[in-house]
Task: inverse folding
C-alpha cells in the first residue's frame, strides 16, 4: 500500500475503484509549439509522439460503443496532429460530444489559420489554457509573447461565437505559478471575467482551476529550487476526504497516443498503466472490463485530493 492509500484509508472510507465511464479522454500526442514550465507531460516542439489514424479509428469504434458524455481530446497541442480533423469528423458523425484542449497560441501557427472555424463548424467545445489574467505570470510559465498571442486567439474565438453561444463553450484553465494550491475557483473566475472583459472585451464560459501535479517539468523545477519536499507536505497535509468520490479517474479512462489505456493523463505521464486485470489497449476496449477496476495510485494523487480538489474539469469542491 503506497503513501496515498495509507493516508486516504486513515482519513476516510477508501473506494479507489472505477464507478462509471462518463468521459473518454484521448491524448493525441506530445508535440506542442510551447514548452510550458508546469507541463506534466513535458511536451514541446521536439516531441514526436503522435497518435496514428489507425489508433484514432479504434478510439471512434470504442466511443461509438461506450457512448460517453464526452470525448475529451488533449495533448501536447492536439491541433498539431495531422489527423485531428478527420478524428473529430468521425466522432461527430457518430453523434458524440467532443471537447478539445488548446493552448490558444497554436491557433496562430502556420497551417492553423482556419482551425477556429473548423472547431465552430463541428461544434467542438474548447478548454483553453490561460494560466493567469496577468501578462507577467503567463509569460513566466509559457514564454515571452504568449500572453498577447493568447488574447488574440481568444478574441478571434469570441468573434466566432465561442464563450457566448451555448453550443460553443469556451472554458479557461488556471494553473498556479508556483508551489501553492489554487485559490477559490468561483472567486478567481470572477476576477478573470472582470479583468478580461474590461481590458480586452473577452468572454468565456467557465474557469477551471487545476493544481500543478508533482510530476514533469513542474516537479523538476521544484527539485532544482529545493522546494519539492515542502510542496509534497502541502499536498499531503491538504488531503481532503470529500474529493475522493469525484476524482476524475473514477469516471473516465485515458487513451494515450499509442493506444495504451490509463486511469488519467497523470498516470500516463508516469507510465502507470491500468490494473493488470483491465484491458490495456484501445484495440481491446471492453467497457465491462473497465468498470469496477482498481485505480492505480501513487503520491502524485495527493495533487488531486488537496484542498478543494483538482481534476481536468477544475475544482472538485465549490466551497
Result:
Amino acid at each position: 500500500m503506497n503513501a496515498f492509500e495509507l493516508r486516504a484509508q486513515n482519513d476516510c472510507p477508501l473506494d479507489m475503484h472505477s464507478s462509471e465511464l462518463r468521459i473518454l479522454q484521448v491524448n493525441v500526442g506530445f508535440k506542442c509549439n510551447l514548452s510550458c514550465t508546469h507541463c506534466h507531460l513535458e511536451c514541446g516542439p521536439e516531441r514526436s509522439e503522435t497518435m496514428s489514424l489507425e489508433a484514432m479509428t479504434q478510439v471512434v469504434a470504442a466511443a461509438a460503443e461506450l457512448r460517453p458524455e464526452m470525448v475529451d481530446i488533449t495533448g501536447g497541442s492536439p491541433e498539431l496532429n495531422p489527423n485531428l480533423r478527420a478524428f473529430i469528423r468521425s466522432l461527430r458523425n457518430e453523434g458524440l460530444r467532443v471537447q478539445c484542449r488548446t493552448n490558444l497560441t497554436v491557433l496562430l501557427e502556420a497551417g492553423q489559420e482556419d482551425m477556429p472555424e473548423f472547431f465552430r463548424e463541428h461544434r467542438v467545445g474548447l478548454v483553453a489554457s490561460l494560466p493567469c489574467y496577468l501578462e507577467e505570470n503567463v509569460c513566466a510559465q509559457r514564454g515571452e509573447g504568449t500572453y498577447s498571442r493568447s488574447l488574440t486567439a481568444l478574441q478571434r474565438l469570441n468573434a466566432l461565437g465561442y464563450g457566448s453561444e451555448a453550443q460553443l463553450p469556451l472554458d479557461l484553465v488556471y494553473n498556479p505559478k508556483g508551489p501553492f494550491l489554487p485559490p477559490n475557483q468561483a472567486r478567481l473566475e470572477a476576477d478573470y471575467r472582470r479583468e478580461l472583459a474590461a481590458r480586452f472585451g473577452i468572454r468565456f464560459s467557465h474557469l477551471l482551476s487545476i493544481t500543478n501535479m508533482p510530476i514533469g517539468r513542474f516537479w523538476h523545477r521544484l527539485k532544482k529550487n529545493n522546494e519539492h519536499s515542502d510542496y509534497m507536505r502541502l499536498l499531503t497535509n491538504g488531503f481532503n476526504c470529500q474529493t475522493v468520490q469525484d476524482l476524475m479517474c473514477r469516471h473516465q479512462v485515458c487513451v494515450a497516443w499509442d493506444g495504451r489505456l490509463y486511469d488519467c493523463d497523470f498516470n500516463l505521464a508516469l507510465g502507470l498503466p491500468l490494473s493488470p486485470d483491465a484491458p490495456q489497449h484501445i484495440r481491446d476496449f471492453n467497457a465491462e472490463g473497465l468498470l469496477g477496476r482498481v485505480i492505480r495510485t501513487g503520491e502524485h494523487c495527493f495533487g488531486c485530493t488537496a484542498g478543494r480538489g483538482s481534476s481536468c474539469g477544475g475544482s472538485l469542491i465549490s466551497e
The chain has a mean pLDDT of 94. Strands lie at 23-27, 70-74, 98-102, 125-129, 170-174, 207-209, 252-255, 261-262. The chain has twelve helices and eight strands.
